[in-house]
């Protein structure tokens, strides 16, 4: 390997590591914000829902597409929401193309007979996907406030009573609640998804919101002021994460967001890796699309502070961290050999300590979010250590898949909104076998994921002749992560 090539590899590797380090510092700052906020006691103006004059009209929107397995559960749960019937309407925004439409229509008719104002709204086509459905429903919505729930979410009956009062503050455009997980312990896959989402819904959402930095409506389990949606330019379907897009447009117009960590809205996590893949792809590609669409508006905004801009840019770059991680992983083996060939460049390899420091920072940050939900006993800490390194390995295993998504997003390649299939999985005895919405084809990335598993096995072997075991744990996690994703993908067909 020539010295020029070696220096190019070192430069790319070091740049990716430094970006990951900046991301971890941003997370550390959010942790400090989070811990500071937990000690504060805030009083906010609230509607008195015991006074009929203060009860606003609310529309609940349920955007659905081919949800045969969860429709009955969803409608039965929403029918239990406690709110005056004269001030509540429910829109079932049904874009389905299968037989579930018939059963949904029947159940809605039954609920209408109970006096519930519930409408079954169908469109000619799926233009704009979920954003298009929400926009069409909004045009005829009677509510001053719009609550949105995806098909797998099961809000508690008093959900509106806990969220609507905060809109007494006329500057608040959105109230978002924390996601819960009804099937957290179903498998390793659901446990690590819950782990990652818990970090987002505690550390990140509270950490940003507590200091007035931009947060995002999470697409579901939140409620909008209708005026805020319209003022921000309404729903747009030009990115795969329409929720993030509208959130930033609203906050750039000075609307405030209120995040309620204490209000949990349970939902179902994907139990099959093909479903998790499609969800991860949409979220990560959508994040990159929103970076392209919004970052310049954030940087040039006159009405927000430098710190809010920094956190906004890091937030929009969240998914791009997978690209940085994948670059670091891919180049780590050549770096091992460069270190052995060019001894005089040894000082450059101190930069690898950035990755160790970044990992330690994330380990500390995620522990605080984990213990806030699971508890802080010694047993919980031991469980946390195992879960953190399992999560870390599988996240590394997803890095190729998510890098493809991020690159497509940054390069502006358009793709359709692929929904995440729902399973109605509530406990360990429920099965996903036979679900007709599962992807029938194996992911083409699987061949590369297998090749990468072998590649990192070679990386572990390389430590022996080079007598350099510094990257061995990293290569082991990469080997296990890509192996997990590959073998789970191979066996996840219905």
From TrEMBL:
It is found in: Golgi apparatus membrane. Pfam families: Glyco_tranf_2_3. GO terms for biological process: cell wall organization. The chain crosses the membrane at residues 6-32, 316-338, 344-368, 446-464, 470-487. InterPro entries: Nucleotide-diphossugar_trans. The keyword Amino-acid biosynthesis does not apply. Its main location: Golgi. GO terms for molecular function: glycosyltransferase activity. The keyword Protein transport does not apply. Keywords: Cell wall biogenesis/degradation, Glycosyltransferase, Golgi apparatus, Membrane, Transferase, Transmembrane, Transmembrane helix. It is a multi-pass membrane protein. This is Glycosyltransferase. It comes from Flagellimonas olearia.
């Amino acid at each position: 390997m020539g010295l020029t090539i070696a220096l190019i590899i070192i430069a790319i590797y070091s740049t990716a590591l430094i970006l990951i380090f900046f991301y971890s510092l941003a997370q550390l700052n959010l942790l400090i914000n989070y811990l500071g906020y937990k000690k504060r006691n805030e009083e906010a103006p609230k509607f008195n829902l015991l006074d009929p004059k203060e009860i606003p009209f609310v529309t609940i929107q349920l955007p659905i597409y081919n949800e045969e397995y969860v429709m009955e559960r969803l409608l039965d749960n929403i029918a239990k929401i406690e709110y005056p019937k004269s001030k509540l309407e429910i829109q079932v925004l049904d874009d389905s193309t299968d037989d579930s439409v018939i059963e949904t229509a029947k159940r809605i008719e039954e609920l209408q007979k109970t006096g519930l104002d519930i409408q079954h709204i169908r469109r000619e086509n799926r233009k704009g996907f979920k954003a298009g459905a929400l926009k069409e429903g909004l045009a005829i919505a009677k509510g001053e406030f719009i609550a949105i729930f995806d098909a797998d979410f099961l809000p508690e009956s008093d959900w509106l009573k806990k969220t609507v009062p905060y809109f007494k503050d006329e500057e608040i455009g959105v109230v978002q609640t924390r996601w819960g997980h009804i099937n957290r312990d179903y498998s390793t896959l659901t446990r690590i998804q819950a782990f990652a989402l818990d970090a987002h819904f505690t550390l990140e959402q509270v950490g940003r919101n507590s200091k007035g930095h931009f947060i995002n409506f999470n697409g579901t389990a939140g409620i909008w002021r209708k005026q805020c949606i319209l003022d921000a330019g309404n729903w747009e379907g030009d990115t795969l994460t329409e929720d993030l897009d509208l959130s930033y447009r609203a906050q750039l117009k000075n609307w405030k967001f209120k995040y309620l960590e204490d209000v949990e809205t349970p939902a179902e996590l994907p139990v099959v890796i093909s479903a998790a893949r499609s969800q991860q792809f949409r979220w990560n590609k959508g994040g990159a699309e929103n970076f392209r669409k919004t970052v310049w508006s954030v940087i040039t905004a006159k009405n927000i502070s430098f710190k809010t801009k920094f956190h906004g840019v890091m937030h929009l770059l969240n998914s791009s961290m997978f690209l940085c991680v994948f670059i670091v992983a891919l180049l780590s083996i050549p770096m091992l050999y460069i270190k052995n060939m060019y001894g005089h460049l040894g000082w450059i390899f101190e930069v690898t300590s950035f990755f160790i420091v970044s990992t330690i920072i994330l380990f500390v940050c995620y522990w605080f979010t984990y213990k806030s939900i699971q508890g802080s006993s010694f047993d919980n800490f031991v469980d946390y250590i195992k879960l953190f390194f399992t999560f870390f390995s599988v996240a590394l295993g997803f890095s190729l898949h998510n890098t493809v998504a991020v690159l497509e997003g940054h390069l502006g390649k358009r793709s359709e909104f692929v929904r995440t299939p729902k399973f109605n999985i509530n406990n360990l005895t429920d099965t996903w076998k036979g679900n007709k919405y599962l992807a029938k084809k194996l992911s083409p990335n699987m061949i590369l994921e297998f090749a990468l598993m072998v590649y990192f096995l070679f990386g572990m072997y390389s430590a022996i002749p080079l007598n350099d075991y510094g990257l061995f744990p990293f290569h082991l996690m990469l080997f296990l992560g890509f192996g997990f994703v590959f073998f789970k993908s191979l066996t996840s067909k219905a």
